[in-house]
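hiii so my PI (J.) wants the whole complex modelled not just the main chain, which honestly fair. so below is everything: two entries, each one labled with what it is. i double checked the lines twice but i was tired so who knows lol
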Amino acid sequence: MIDKFREKFVEESLDNINDLEEALFLLEKDMHNREIIERIFRAMHSLKGGGAMFGFNHLSEFTHHLETVFDLVRNDKLAVTNDIISLTFEAIDQIKHLLQIGDLTEKADIANQAAFIKRIQAVSNQEESSASTTVVGESSGSQVAVSDGSKTFLIGIKPNEDILRNGTNPFYLLDDLHAMGEAKVAAFAKGIPDLGQFQPISNFCYWQVVLNTSESVNDIKDVFIFVEDECEIDIKELKVGNIIKSEALDELVNNSVADQTLITKEQIEAIGGSDDNDQDDEKRDAKRKVQLKEHKISSIRVNSNKIDDLVNLVSELVTIQAQLNLYAEKDGNGDIVSLAENIQKLSRQLRDNAFEISLIPLQSELMRFQRLVRDLSKELNKEIEFVIEGGDIELDKNIIEHLTDPLLHIIRNSVDHGIELPEERIKNGKSPKGTIIFKAFYSGASVIVQVIDDGKGIDPDFIRAKAISKGLLDENVELSRKEIFDLVFLSGFSTKEVVSDVSGRGVGMDVVKKKIGEIRGEVSLDSKVGQGTTLTLELPMTLSIIDGLLVKVANNQYVIPIANIEKIHAIDDVNFGNTLNNVVSIGDQQFPYIDVRDVFECDTANSGGEQLILVKFEDRKVGLLVDQVIGEYQTVVKPLGRFLKKQENISGATIMGDGSIALVIDTNRMIHSNAAKKYRTKK
Amino acid sequence: MAKTVLIVDDSESIREVVNFTLQNEGYDVLVGVDGEDALKFLDGRTIDIVITDLHMPNLDGLGLIRKIREMDAYKHIPILFLTTESQASKKMEAKQAGATGWIIKPFVPAKLLSAISRVLR
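here's the output for the full assembly
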């Protein structure tokens, strides 16, 4: 049964870890903030408790040691240092790993974890002893050689006959003792009467437990707090070493069970291993009232599949509703028309709502970026400040999912290639600390995400030369500054001579471009030598619903996203004077254009009149020649399926009110694939 | 009549396990995400037992227990708290605050039910 909840636990823990990382970043800036320390402690505590609950035993063990460190910290026995923070960051990675794979099985992994735990223990031990030297002072010398600090107890438990009637199960007391350390239990059941007189609701047994634990006698007493009145409890501390694993003890326990005679204190102490550390228990009073102000939970967690389903259903509804409108218009019955209108209103609201639900703030991913910058800059000995602006901007979760990898790559590039080493920066008259700004903002129906660094920048001439040497560009072609920077996104282009370990992981900017293209986004780069580089992503807010312009090309209907459209011109305004170069002039301006009928290889002869649609393409406008503009159309885009993934012109399909299908034109990619040929050399 | 249990834990997965286990056994279950959140259920309705975590934001388990013990209507209801074995020192503190008993994490459903039935006698 527990298995069902494992997944939930993992999900929740990942959130927990996110919170933990955030808190650690805060702690790094403010090492004495109790609230933050308490938050970290609690996160670890939850991981430990939950880990044990849901069968992540290694995770539980591992976080236990971390928790110990932060328990010391919050009780002022240990001061936060950079080392502790770094160690904890490292530990978080291990926790993530453990959450992914569950318990470790590889021997090497287990050994690694054990080594890691040693390091963590070193932190808590070292501080514990140094703390106690300051407190205890004179006795510090003798405490250096403390062994494992465990003690052995002989515990007798003799419950009353009616303990079971109260619902107490004495076995759980034994469980609790087992949880404190290692225990051997002897059960004495000779009191159980013959079957005839046996009463299942009465208890006739008693137990003796030999317990080896590092807890104090008070902690053992605590186990019995709530059964004091129902049991006779006898706890004796034994003067022996750790003999819990010895065969002699096994024998003693077995014999006493066989003979049903109680084990005595002396019998065990005779086994030996007399221990000389007899120090008093440290009283750890952790009485603290911490008032914590954390945001109230104002949201619920929903499986993302459910949201996908909802959005899908709503899109179906919107489609059907369009059909209903069409029918109502044809039918002309006033009742039906008004019904259809009401349903239209509702379905629009529903659509907007569903759309909003599937948006999540960028914030959720930013922690990873921050972490990346921190770790990488340490590794590369660079000083970098990572500034986040607009983390609360919301995007479709599918877009964010597609965004993470490209952004990680971009940021990695900025850290690795963009920002210079501190010495170099000083030499160039900059502050030794570099800055990377992560900026997100709305622009119309799109979201712009920028990664801006103040590093060394990229020289356009260098890019050009590089592209020519790689055979990506003919040296006679003149390019604008923007076109030159676009060369970086061509496949086969990599500006770094030697592929470095950090950013050269076989992914180039072409992959970034492709990934961003998959979510109908655009990526561009701008740079000034010596001043830095800016990478700009322009992203749609959602993938599933767009405002489109319905057009006719030959006998087919297509949808052009309105966000891309600048202007629509009747063909009479347009002067086709220079058609050879595919350039038209409107008034005194000239625009390149693409005849969509050519792209789709339609017969251009029987067009019912033409219209030219000017669409935005990068920083220019490009005309698309179509047969007829039908009108505005809000539409739900459905993916095309994997067989049609390879084509360049279409980003999806939509079902029209009458059940026919219109394809959605991806203007950027269409123009790119048709225009790019002009400056790319043929291989 | 079904007994009503109020569960208070800031961990969703723990809440769900406890909730699932108890509902299966026919208990009515109320769920609070922290001490402060749990207080809203203590509005005069009948609650037969409270099961609370100790480490929680806003109002922690001990604080909640103390608050409940101050309320005339709930002064005497049983309160169990969830704890891990490493927090043994907390037990005494919790008892002094007015807890009736505890359940050690990790627990199996049977142990949880036994602990509840014990105090709900």
